[in-house]
Write a sequence for this structure.
């Protein structure tokens, strides 16, 4: 184990996968200089055939990734800010998510769209969305959000090796956050959640950027005798419903934390699935801790009010265990 | 913009010329059949016919092998057949059968055969352009001299992706040929009412050759494509070809059933019918002693038999099995 920043872990995953498979290519806006640091050094190491700056042309970039994947490469298309995925949305929603299906399985499309998501840095409304629910709804795209540097590395390596389109979204404010990363190679299995903390009283599901504040909230309420079981789905599509449902069957209570806007958030989907599959086990109404249905504001005190933090999560945990029947 | 040279001698043999004629005829007869089927109510979904534009697909695809890539449009049957896609598999696909090229998952607007370099028809106007940019990047990295060709319409020429593709393709010198089929209509709007300037001129600011060509003249298209494909194979980068042609059929079959008014005069359609690319090439062949009327009748009979065989095959084919609707999302 060594302590590494998330951005370093992502950089290592890219470098290792590019060294492992020469069909892996990387392109995007400013990937050569790398403003975030995640692609730094790759252009010098792998050369201009495999690492290329593109113009700020998201429409052609996303489509180009699909075409190059259909023609035998494994492109990683770096979109910088996740909000720019909207600009390149046609090729994601109408081509990448459907081309294999509508051609009867003739091809595989091994490609990764990557970018940062979420707020917390006063980047304001057009650079701060958590857009993963949109991609979950497409069906044909795997949606991956790491909650730690170790997972970022293991999940990105898995995403690059996967034969399907994958969206890999890293929380924007967390590139500098450090964590233990194993020295040996770890490749995650997409579609497998991780149980980060065992607990008997309430199931706490936290997504991507919300994993760290959820962990703090769980530790805080533990001092009050509330033991939360913390689960990071890691992959939102496909979603490991089995792990989450099994936990709720034990705890009888569910709180889901998601940096997406509330309506049709990943949290909403998880609550719906659990309610369908474990209704009889529920002792209290499931709770969602999400962003209200507003754009992300600029001013720091306003932004802090809309993005869930440890205090809001802890309050939801307390509310959950005090509601309904005895646990 | 460069005006393409008038059709003069190509180095094509008589057999090759007849094969091109046969390919145009095949597209025509397949589509006439599909039009009749739609009218009869036997097709599951809508069809957008390419009738009158056959010379473009055939003239361009004559230069391509199975290892070259094409992407096409919602009006994509012609490109599929011109690139060597199987008639049986295409008709079965449009019929929604298990033996269709896409096992009935895509239908008319998504006929594709990746084993022949056909990325496929596309239901999104301009949707194929960026896909061919990616295929051209792959071809460039492969260094085997393959190219990618995007077929798109005058409607798609008004999508921003064309500018992005011209810019990136020129910058990276991608082996890419952009073929705009200007058929006079963006769905139900005459091109002139929604399109400023000249489409072929849109290449010049990027240092890309822009060529306007008579899209109803098979040999003119063949020559323009010959130069563009060679330039792409040799590392010279993209070319934009504007093939001026005319959509003899509607945007979609049976459109009169839902349109309240007219968007063109019948006299205009008749004027273009007189410039039919197949009849025109037939008279070229006969006029130059390359074929007799009897040769052409024999070709037409051959094609009719191929279409009849494909229709019988499709009609006899089963529907896809229950459960297939949940397959193929992920590998």
């Amino acid at each position: 184990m060594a302590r590494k920043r998330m951005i370093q872990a992502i950089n290592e995953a890219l470098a290792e996968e590019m060294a492992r498979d020469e069909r892996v290519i990387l392109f995007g806006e400013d990937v050569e200089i790398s403003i975030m640091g995640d692609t730094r050094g790759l252009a010098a190491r792998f050369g201009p055939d495999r690492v290329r700056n593109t113009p700020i042309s998201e429409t052609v970039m996303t489509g180009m990734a699909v075409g190059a994947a259909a023609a035998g490469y494994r492109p990683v298309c770096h979109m910088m800010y996740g909000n720019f995925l909207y600009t390149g949305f046609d090729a994601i929603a109408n081509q990448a998510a459907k081309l294999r299906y509508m051609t009867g399985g003739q091809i595989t499309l091994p490609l990764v769209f990557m970018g940062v998501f979420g707020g917390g840095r006063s980047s304001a409304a057009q650079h701060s969305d958590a857009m993963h629910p949109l991609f979950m709804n497409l069906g044909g795209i795997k949606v991956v959000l790491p909650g730690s540097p170790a997972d970022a590395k293991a999940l990105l390596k898995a995403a690059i090796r996967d034969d399907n389109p994958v969206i890999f979204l890293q929380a924007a404010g967390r590139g500098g956050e450090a964590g233990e990363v194993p020295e040996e190679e770890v490749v995650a299995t997409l579609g497998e959640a991780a149980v980060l903390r065992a607990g008997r009283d309430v199931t706490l599901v936290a997504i991507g950027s919300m994993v760290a504040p959820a962990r703090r909230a769980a530790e805080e309420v533990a001092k009050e005798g509330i033991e939360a079981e913390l689960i990071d789905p890691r992959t939102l599509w496909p979603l490991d419903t089995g792990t989450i449902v099994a936990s709720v069957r034990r705890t009888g209570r569910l709180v889901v934390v998601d940096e997406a806007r509330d309506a049709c958030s990943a949290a909403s989907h998880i609550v719906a699935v659990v309610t369908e599959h474990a209704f009889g086990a529920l002792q209290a109404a499931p709770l969602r801790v999400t962003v209200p249905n507003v754009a992300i504001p600029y001013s720091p005190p306003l932004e802090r009010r809309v993005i869930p933090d440890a205090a809001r999560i802890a309050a939801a945990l307390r509310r959950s265990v005090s509601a309904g029947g005895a646990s | 913009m460069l005006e393409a040279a008038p059709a003069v001698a190509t180095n094509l043999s008589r057999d090759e010329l007849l094969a091109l004629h046969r390919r145009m005829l095949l597209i025509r007869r397949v589509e006439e059949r599909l039009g009749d089927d739609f009218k009869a109510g036997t097709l599951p979904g809508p069809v957008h016919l390419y009738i009158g534009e056959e010379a473009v697909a055939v003239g361009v695809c004559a230069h391509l092998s199975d290892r070259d890539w094409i992407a096409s449009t919602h009006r994509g049957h012609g490109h599929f057949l011109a690139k060597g896609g199987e008639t049986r598999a295409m008709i079965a696909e449009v019929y929604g059968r298990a033996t269709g090229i896409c096992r009935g998952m895509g239908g008319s607007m998504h006929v594709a055969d990746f084993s022949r370099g056909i990325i496929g028809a596309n239901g999104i106007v301009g949707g194929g352009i960026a896909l061919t940019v990616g295929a051209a990047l792959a071809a460039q990295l492969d260094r085997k001299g393959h190219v990618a060709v995007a077929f798109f319409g005058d409607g798609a020429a008004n999508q921003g992706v064309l500018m992005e593709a011209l810019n990136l393709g020129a910058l990276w010198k991608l082996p890419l040929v952009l073929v705009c089929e200007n058929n006079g209509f963006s769905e139900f709007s005459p091109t002139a009412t929604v399109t400023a300037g000249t489409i072929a001129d849109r290449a010049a600011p990027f240092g890309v050759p822009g060529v306007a060509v008579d899209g109803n003249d098979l040999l003119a298209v063949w020559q323009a494509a010959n130069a563009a494909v060679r330039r792409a194979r040799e590392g010279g980068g993209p070319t934009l070809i504007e093939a001026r042609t005319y959509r003899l059929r509607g945007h979609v079959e049976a459109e009169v059933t839902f349109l309240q008014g007219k968007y063109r005069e019948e006299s205009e359609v008749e004027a273009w019918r007189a410039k039919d690319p197949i009849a025109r090439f037939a008279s070229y062949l006969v006029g130059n002693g390359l074929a007799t009327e009897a040769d052409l009748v024999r070709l037409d009979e051959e094609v009719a038999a191929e279409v009849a065989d494909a229709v019988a095959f499709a009609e006899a084919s089963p529907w896809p099995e229950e459960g297939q609707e949940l397959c193929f999302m992920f590998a």
About this structure: The domain at 2-315 of chain B is CATH 3.40.50.970 (Rossmann fold). Chain B touches chain A through 47 residues (CB under 8 Å). The beta strands of chain B are 2-3, 69-71, 118-120, 148-153, 176-182, 185-186, 189-190, 210-214, 239-244.
